[in-house]
Design a protein that fits this description.
This protein has about 180 residues and is of the alpha+beta class. It has one domain. The chain has 3 helices and 7 strands. A 5-stranded mixed β-sheet has the order 2-3-4-5-6, covered by helices on one side. The radius of gyration is 25 Å and the shape is elongated. The N and C termini lie far apart (about 70 Å).
């Protein structure tokens, strides 16, 4: 995507944090937007630092900021979403990496096994993917009610699936009668 290389852990200083600031160019933004199925991306910035924790572990803290252009899931009109989120990753040297099909997940989903490199750009793409709204909807737009039934049958509506709504109506009617 851009020229930001993965950082080799052996080359990172133990005494001071290593800063990074990733701002992809227009071509990289177009390529990433296409890869993620978006209409476009603007103002993407991922900046932070990586610092040593304990003797062998590393901690990445960063901020992801981006404006994503997506289609509304109801109207298909373009909508813009601003995302500004803090990102943290803990790279643990003692954590085993497994190629098994079933692996128990750690309690903290920010924990990852420490490899030979830490790739801020890959972390940026992962964080962006997780932060994007799955079902972006234009403000004030709602899905309408769809009614399907066999000919000659009375259709079942959403209200019919709420049994306590009928009880509330009955309760209100009894209050009026008294």
């Amino acid at each position: 995507m851009s020229d930001t290389p993965a950082l080799r852990v052996a080359d990172l200083p133990q005494n001071s944090p290593t800063s990074f600031d990733i701002r992809p160019d227009i071509d990289a933004l177009k390529m990433l937007a296409n890869e993620l199925g978006l209409r476009g991306l603007r103002k993407l910035r991922f900046n932070g630092q990586i610092e040593a924790k304990d003797r062998r572990d590393w901690h990445l803290t960063a901020t992801l900021g981006v404006t994503a252009l997506q289609n509304c899931v109801v109207t298909l009109e373009p909508i813009s979403t601003r995302i500004d989120v803090p990102i943290q990753r803990h790279f643990l040297a003692g954590m085993e990496h497994s190629d098994e099909p079933e692996v128990e997940m750690p309690e903290d989903d920010n924990v990852e096994p420490l490899g030979s490199h830490i790739d801020p750009q890959a972390i940026m793409i992962e964080a962006l993917t997780l932060a994007l709204p799955q079902y972006p909807r234009k403000e004030g737009v709602e899905l309408g009610e769809s009614i399907y039934t066999e000919p000659g049958q009375e259709p079942m509506r959403d209200e019919d699936t709420r049994p306590f709504a009928g009880l509330a109506d009955l309760h209100n009617q009894l209050k009026k009668d008294n």
